Amino acid sequence: MTGDTQRSTAAPHAAWLPDGAFAALGSRRVVVAGDGALTGTVAEEVAAATARFGGAFSRLEVGDAVADAELVLTLSPAETSPAASSPADHGEDTDESFRFTREAGAVVVQARTDAGLLRGLFHVVRLGEAAFDGPDADETHAPATDLRMLDHWDNVDVHPTMGQVERGYSGGSIFYDNGFVRSDLSRVERYARLLAAVGINRVAINNVNVHEHEAHLLTDDLGDVVRIAAVFRRWGIRVHLSVSFASPILLGGLGTSDPLDQDVAHWWVRAAARVWDAIPDFGGFVVKADSEGQPGPFAYGRTHADGANMLAAAVEPYDGLIHWRAFVYNHRQDWRDRSTDRARAAFDHFHPLDGTFSDNVIVQVKYGPLDFQVREPVSPVLAAMPHTRIALELQITQEYTGQQKHAVYLGPQWSQILGFRFWEPTGRDGGSPTVADLATGRGKAAEDPGTGTWRKPAGGFAAVSNVGDDEFWTGHPFAQANLYAYGRLCWDPTLDPATLLDEWVGLTFPGAPDAVRQAVHTVLDRSWETYEQYTAPLGVGFMVRPGHHYGPDVDGYEYTPWGTYHFADRDGIGVDRTVRTGTGYAGQYPSPWRETYESLSTCPDELLLFFHHVPYTHVLHSGTTVIQHIYDTHFEGVERVEAMIAAWSDVSTLVDPRLSERVAERFAEQLHSATEWRDQISAYFLRKSGIPDELGRTIY
């Protein structure tokens, strides 16, 4: 099935790959040596750049003489056969490393595979003139993990409630148009190129909430998946599908989806064989089960390991992966019952299953225990499964962080999460592993299970994508920075988010005056902190309008089956999640965080109300009371937005007028929304507490 009624008539914005980003490479004498599909992609990029900027391009076989080249991109001689470098033949552990050397201003990029050569090309593009300047160098670059994935929540049909893209804030789908896969996939090609430039190597192309039509991508509509996979293949990216656990019923006519039923298992074996026969480099399946109404193994009295392992056996012959999401909780809770705590759910369900999942199962864990809030503690599940492959799941699309109407750069948040240590900062083998270490398998734990000798099985990273068919890809042009930073942090989780922000600005606005770069950095660098200031305070979540999740609604979720999040009354605010008197959630952490979160005296201010119910007069470590903190931060947050707008206004005439107009429109909405947040939150807690603002500001 095909269709095309693209909503946006303007050509998509070039994002971080405008023509100007290739000026340094394109003005030089460049040689590409080697064979393979992705080497052909590298050669096409170089040929276009040198033609545009007056350089010279040569395509050679490996081992041929190279004279006077300023840049050589070459495969290692041992890896030159087409069979060795064909992406369709790569297993799960494709070598994407490359060696970068510079001698007297001449650069050589050498890789064992054409996937590595493609990464090396974009490394040179990213460096620009700096690639050729400076002292001699000899560097080896390799990704922290082989699994660097994006999950698209796109629907083939327009869902009556969620639309074409669930939690999408950038228009319609780039893959589907109201019931059909697009006949013109040229925009998907441009998207794949952007992702390749930042190191993404896997993409799931449909919603984890698999509706009836979308389920047929696995069977009747597989031919359209073949077309999409062919586009991504040219850029070293493997395609995955989200599948319904009930597919044997929905698609196969069986009466059950019981994972221990042999007919069910055989149905999945046959389904997998069809998929890999059509797409030899297919990546695997993403599964949301027993969550928010999605079917799963609980219906048959089975565990999540039972369900995941049955699917894993079906895809194992093809080196396929099963991404099994750990987002499992009771969304039919009784808000009157304070012992029920949604935050506990993932740990309670999955910790007992550690070590029981097959080797090709990746348990995909949201970074926090709730749902992508602006501030949550890092999920204890990430530390609780030492013998299971885990993927850290982030959300690039800004569901709870301004929905790409607000300028919010999430790189600093992700960097904090990636660098978080569950155990002591120092200890055996050079210290406690970070979250990034646990996801990539690169570190040993100082404790738990106590020997300090186990090595975590390698998992990786996954995130919900934020693009659509909007002219600027992400609705707000500045939200492109989040997609860029995610890809770069997947490649190297130790990178500085401020440096990544400057990288993105430099690539997106090449040749722009320094004032533009400085202004964009000023706007975005602390924008996550600013958003937190004018929205939910001190670790409280879900103070948003139910359903669409935009704008303030302090009690919107407080008395619903989805969970209770602030327990505000006349005396205080916060959820008691301590072991001593509360839900016991704090006890899911290893020491020292178990004790840190349990105690009022040591719990960090930014998470205080996530772990404790306290009086409004409780004094924070900052020296101010909870109620005064609420007033101060909400007023300061609005002032910061006003300063962001002023900084951008000073340079807005120096960029593309279309981009400037879109940013101005988004800033107007951000200021309106931030003011609404300030006034509603402040008024709510003034009325609850009866304690006035000590600075005498107007509160309604």
For the secondary structure, the number of strands is 20
CATH class of the largest domain: Alpha Beta
At CATH level 3, the topology of the largest domain is TIM Barrel
Q: How far from one another are the termini?
A: 55 Å
Which range does the strand content fall in?
A: 5-15%
Q: How many domains would you count in the coordinates?
A: 3
Regions with pLDDT < 50 over 5+ consecutive residues?
A: 79-91, 446-451
Shape: globular
Number of helices: 22
Taking all residues together, what is the mean pLDDT?
93
Main sheet makeup: 8 strands, parallel, barrel
What is the CATH architecture term of the largest domain? Answer: Alpha-Beta Barrel
Quickly give the structural class.
alpha/beta
The neighbouring-strand order within the major sheet is: 8-12-13-14-15-16-17-18
Instruction: Give the name of the CATH superfamily of the largest domain.
Output: Glycosidases
As a percent range, the share of helical residues equals 25-40%
The radius of gyration over CA amounts to: 25 Å
